[in-house]
Amino acid sequence: MSESSQVQTKLGSDAGGGAAAAPSPVAPERRRRLPADRQELTTFAFRYAMVGVAVVLAIVAQIAYPGFFAWSSVQQMLSQNAGQGLVAMGMTFVIIAAGFDLSVAAVFALGAVSYVSLGQHMGLAIAFALVILMGMGAGVVNGAIITKVKVNAFVATLGTASIFGGIAYIVSGSQTLSSTKTNITHLGLDKWLGVQIPIWFLVGAFLVGGVLLAYTVFGRSVYAVGGNRESARLSGLRVDLITLITYVIVGAMAALAGILSASTTGIAGADEGAEITLAAIAIVIIGGTSLFGGEGAMWRTVVGLAIFAMIDHLFILMNVNTPGQLVAKGAIVIIAVAIDAWSRQRTA
Amino acid sequence: MSDETIEFRGVRRTFGVTVALKDIDVTVRRGTVHAFVGENGAGKSTALGVLAGRLKPTGGTVTVFGRELPYGDPRACLRDGIAAIYQELTTIPALSPEANVFLGQTFSRFGFLAESRMRRRYVALCERLGVEAKPKGTIAGRLAVADQQLLEVLRALQVDAKVMLFDEPTASLAEHERDAVLTLMERLRDDGITVIFVSHHLEEVLRVCDDITVFRDGAVVSSRPRSEWTHTSMVDAMLGRDESGQMLKEIESGEGASRAPSRRAGTPLLRAEGVSLPGAIEDVSVALQGGEILGLGGMVGSGRTSLLRCLAGLEPRSRGRLWIDGEEVGWPRTVRRALSYGITLVPEDRKGQGLGLALSAADNVVMSDFGAASRFGFVRPSRLRQIATEEAEPFGFAPGRIRSVAGHLSGGNQQKLLLARAANRRPRVMLVDEPTRGIDVGAKGEILVKLQEMVAAGMSIVFVSSELEEVSGVSDRVLVFNAGRVVAELEREAGITPASILGHVLVEETR
Lengths: 348, 511
What we know:
Chain A contains 16 helices and four strands. In chain A, the strands form two sheets. Chain A has a two-stranded antiparallel sheet with strand order 1-4. Chain A starts with a helix and ends with a helix. Chain A has helices spanning 2-21, 36-47, 49-64, 71-80, 82-96, 104-119, 124-147, 153-172, 186-189, 197-215, 217-227, 229-234, 239-265, 276-287, 298-317, 322-347, and strands at 177-178, 191-192, 195-196, 267-268. Chain B is of the alpha/beta class. Chain B has two domains: 5-241, P-loop containing nucleotide triphosphate hydrolases (Rossmann fold, 3-Layer(aba) Sandwich), CATH 3.40.50.300; 251-342 and 427-510, Rossmann fold. Chain B has 18 helices and 24 strands. In chain B, β9, α6 (175-190) and β10 (194-198) form a beta-alpha-beta unit. The chains are: A mainly alpha, B alpha/beta. Chains A and B meet through α1, α2, α11 and α12 of A and α11, α12, β20, α15 and α16 of B.
């Protein structure tokens, strides 16, 4: 109840501002279109709903498991979810541009096996660069099929998921590859300033991605393309190029996640990381970025990642087995999308 | 309380802190056509929404022929005989006309559709209204918009509606289709049905309505029989004496467009020849001088919009030759190419092609040129809002609303954003498609005045509108389209009137 009254106050001040700008009836066009208030009210309530969920979850977790937010525990949560988080960061761009990428798990697996495989023949730094380029190439393929051939994003990436996945099996010879280089786990397990390197990648990626999305011309253009493609085209934006770049970003992130995975264990298999696609999309959606495009923000994905990581960790602490986790996570995703669709109906 | 009237008594409706209806009293007599008029946001649609059960009143009572309304329950309202027909069609394109009429209440026998019985009932309903039944085998999607609306009316008749509410039924229709809808309303009245009609078209209102209620600021200004109203008195009542209404009147009478013809000499700014788009336009040629407004007249679907889309680079299949300042340039097959020639389109479909509804008003304006609001690739939000305000304010957009989400703005404000976006590119040629559709008188005036100012400053405009008064009022020249071809060219010097445009449209049609 207190939240709704807060909402009222917020709306009140908003409407007050409008009225102050034009108190006289001589200016007819300055009147507000009335149903907007209700829309804004609902939108506002949903806008911060997920922050509330995250806070409640954190409090519950802390009460149930007093060591939940100990530094070592937090580090564990972050490093375990670094891969998913990175892909979710890239996926945020794709989804805000009203796209979708189902091929990220395949790119992840291809990245992991390629890194181990290439690493046998060359320096790991060069292998790293090549694998990232390969991830970007996968993004170019996705983007080109979607924008130039005009295949629906869902179908296109479902197809390329199979193709990239197949290539991963070819690269690995359908076997789990094991690196003979001992320094391969430096990237995955070493610490810098007391923090594991994958976490630095995660934080860095979110900072760069967040700035790119919120404060640059490219970021604005992503919103414009996702909000109304036709309108963006009429405005002279390079709609196809902008769309393609979003797939390149998520491709690079998926490949990076694959590299970090291989670097943690020193081994890689083409069958790894199948759950990444669902997890990444779930993190974006749980944060409250709309599947319909044009809306959302990077901080939302951070909130989504926090919720996802906390749930994940709670499952481990509660000894929920893997099948149970899969069922629960699937349900969470559907609920999050249902809330999105429902709030959209209410505000339509 | 009477059996013969619909009565609003002290009806109030608030949204949060905003009062949409301020204790209104309205009486609608049974068996009449009654108009609710007013600007966007004046409360007329809210009043209609209350009657349709879509909105629950915050206070007051509504009685319909002696019975109190089941507030806030659209299905119960429909059961009580109140049917609302909205601007957005609810017909299902792939189904036959009769299937659409019996949607949700299909006739069947032992679980099988009783097609022939539905067909007979459909024909009977059409006869009752004196309209032509569509032949078997057609589908609703192929029918004209007016005919699809007719299906919705028939659907309402089928459930024995006694009151029909029309919310701007003619806004998306061409001139001759409008007549059909207006005639339909008269027939409904003759059939004993009470019609309540919300419209921005004052001529229509004066033509068909028995009583007229004018809303302003959520209150009823005046509710009187048609005989006591004139066009002018309605506008005055709606606006409470506003100068933009005065401007609109001047524009529509042609007084506002008394520009010197001298600038019309010399090389055309834009010349296009042999423009063709399979299935839409055929061998159209057009020349546009600097500082000229060229109006395109004709029916919806006659090729006006297609020509604009071809010139704007939106139709890759189109063919033609294009000269800019007398020099031939490549035919624009992409929007970016057209923009590089200084040609920009303001599309007719505000929601579909025009605005990112989830984006802010400011983003929508500056979308055409984010670069100008940025430094080193970083957008500066304050600069962005400043540019947006500078562009939108001259069209009469309230600067206080520049942060609002575009989807929450009124139609008039949305249109102003679109125009501001186009203007922000500093185009040489602006192609403007139906800029005044479905928006109120005040906003119309502001938009038309601003367009004229832009032309006076040297830009050229190609202007499409289904409002013949506007076309004749603002245009220096008018090309009349019919069935994808230009059939006439009218010059201001020789006089352009709605009748002269319509004359060519109709003559060609009967040919």
